[in-house]
Every structure is written in C-alpha cells, then in structure tokens.
Design goal:
The protein is of the alpha+beta class. It has helices at about 125, 140-155, 160-175, 195-205, 245-250, 250-255, and strands spanning about 15-20, 30-40, 50-60, 85-100, 100-105, 115-120, 190, 215, 220-225, 230-235, 255-260. It is elongated. The termini are far apart.
C-alpha cells in the first residue's frame, strides 16, 4: 500500500479561477474566458511565462468525491468531475499576463475553483496528433458537435478563418451522413479542396499527411469521405461570408451533397 506523509499529501492552492460561471451548471459547453488569479506569494512563479498554451490544474471542490462506473466505462476512462481525487487538467490559451493574473481563452471550470498549478505547454512532450479521441466523446447535440469541431480546428490550425469554418461544417455533415464521429479511425478522407479546408479536415481527423486515411489532391472544390461501406461527397460552393456566417449558414449555401450506399436517418 502506498503511504503518504501527511505533510507531503496536503494540497496548497496557488490561486483560484475567476469567470462568469457562478456554478457548474452555468458553464457553456466550450468553456468561457477566465482569469487565473494568483495568490500574491506566488506571483513571481510566472517569471519566464509567455503568451501561448498552458496546462491549468484545478481542484473541483464542488464535485462529488466518488467514483462513477458503467458497464462500458469507469471514471478513469471519462472526463467526469466525480473522481476519487477531483483534479481537472485543461490546456488553455494564455492571452495576457498581468501581476497575479493570467488571462486565458476558455476553461470549463466555474468561478472560485481552487487553482493547483500552472505548467507551460511544450509541444515536444505534450502533442500526440495521430490518435483519435474515443468514440464516446461524440456529443449528443449538433451544436455541441460543431463547437467541439471548431475548438479542435483552432487548437491545431490557429484562429478560425472562413476556410477552417467551412471545414468544421463539412466534418459535421460527414458525422451525420455516415453516422460516424469525424475523428473515427475508420473514416478515410479524400480532400480535393483548398489547403485551408484540407487543414481543418486533417485536424478533426487526427491524421498526419501520408496516413492512409487522409489523402490530399489538387483543388477541385470537392471533399469525399468513406467508412468502407458508404461514401459521401460534397461539392464546395464559392463562399465569401465571414466565419460566424459560415458556421450559421444553411448547408445548401456552402456545398452540395451526395451519399452513396445505405443512408442512415439524418439528425
């Protein structure tokens, strides 16, 4: 049995989270802009920190300290806040550094949550691009799926552009038309479209160039995806709208659609 010295096992918060979410039920699906407020005695520990990505570790003090289990998944196979030790870890974009305040893009943590630690994100050690997320990560609501796709694309490609927004809408259409999460390892993508769109598709697919499930061809304004049994193709239209307009537009304004093989119910 592991023995911990009582002094060594105590957690010492270094600050707290500050944002507009008063409780867990007010946190939007994609998180919200937040401030990491540091206690004065830890202000010097930000020396050398630069805007970019950081790991944020917090203690979910309002979560039940228990385990969850189902026939297919336990607490260690999920991101549930209900855990033996309710520690949360989030990769966040650090926008601004002020004395005792770190401004980040989005945290799915409510205001007042104790901050345990901040660590720099180091691409050499922390990036694993190839593996796809578990299939159960597919969100139930369409708008939540789109938000997750957009977040994935922004994390891989940077700030959203019109072409990247179009990639998110295409990936969402494939998710529905083939009834597969866009990051499923059994999907094969044939991108014959603008490089910006292809980059967004590559991000959600989690497939590096040269992988058998990601093909990049000349720009013919087309995208195809197959799961081995069915194939769906899209003919991209000329779109000049901004990113928000693309995310909200009707599909017919963005691309034409053709599904080969048995088609699941649309939803």
């Amino acid at each position: 049995m592991v023995q911990l010295d009582p002094g060594e096992s105590r957690l010492q918060p270094v600050g707290y989270v500050e944002n507009a979410a008063a409780g867990p039920g007010e946190i939007p699906y994609q998180g919200l802009p937040s401030v990491l407020v540091l206690l004065p005695e830890f202000a010097g520990l930000t020396r050398g920190l630069e805007p970019g990505y950081i790991w944020v570790l917090t203690w979910l003090n309002r979560a039940a300290r228990r385990t969850e289990s189902s026939p297919t998944r336990g607490s260690f196979a999920s991101r549930t806040p209900h855990r033996p030790n309710p520690v949360a870890i989030t990769a966040a974009r650090l926008h601004q550094i002020e004395p005792c305040r770190l401004l980040v893009d989005a945290l799915d943590i409510c205001s007042g949550t104790p901050l345990l630690d901040v660590k720099p994100y180091v691409r050499e050690f922390d990036t694993i691009f190839g593996p796809a997320d578990p299939a159960w990560r597919r969100a139930d609501l369409v708008q939540d799926r789109l938000a997750r796709l957009v977040r994935t694309i922004e994390r891989f490609c940077g700030p959203l552009t019109g072409e990247l927004a179009l990639a998110a809408r295409l990936a969402l259409a494939v998710d529905r038309d083939l009834d597969r999460a866009a990051n499923s390892p059994d999907l094969v993508w044939d991108c014959r479209c603008a490089l910006g769109v292809a980059a967004g598709i590559q991000a959600v697919a989690g497939a590096p160039l040269g992988a058998a499930r990601f093909c990049l061809g000349p720009d013919l304004g087309e995208l195809r995806a197959t799961d081995g049994c069915r194939e769906v193709s899209y003919s991209l239209r000329q779109v000049t709208a901004g990113t928000e307009a693309i995310l909200a537009a009707a599909e017919e304004e963005l691309f034409g659609r053709n599904v080969l093989g048995s088609e699941p119910p649309r939803g």
